[in-house]
Amino acid sequence: MGIYWKLIWAYIKIGIFGFGGGYAMLSLVEKLVVSDNKWISEQMFTDIVAISQMTPGPIGINSATYIGYVAPAGYDPTLSSPLWGILGSILATLAVTVPSFFLLLYCSHFIRRHNESGAIKAIFGGLRPVVVGLIASAAIMLINKANFNPEGTITQLWTSIIICALAFCLVYFPIKIKNRTIKFHPILIIILAGAAGYLLYGI
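RE: above sequence
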């Protein structure tokens, strides 16, 4: 049963100290779940990030639910029953949301009362670039072999780089056709990338 206390403690820390939202907290999640406790592999972690991105809801909560489900069986084979996984999902999801919920309630009340304070404005002036840095750190962390070249071939590496670059360009840069400006929806990009992956590697 020790895995459940470890899950709760890990996700309490993620919920309280995971500043900047889901993407910014990915580095902290990877450290606690993969590097320190080795509940899942790096490959599974990157897959979880992809699945969490494709499913509705915040990526931090989605990943907590999924990791809470698979971690007990990886930690102790006797906990491989789906019921133990569901218990882990519930505990990890509550641990990551409940502390931050109450912290946010207090902070919103405090900031609303002191939103004109020079100290509060100065604090946010320092926090904003830090959050951008945390998100950039998560992006760099995901540029790894498990995401771009799991088979270790130069062809797959370049194919992954091209797919990544095309996805970025299609989402970030609008395409102008005559008098219309078209910007692709991220959901469409995910579907197209999945179809490309199946055509390239599944057939």
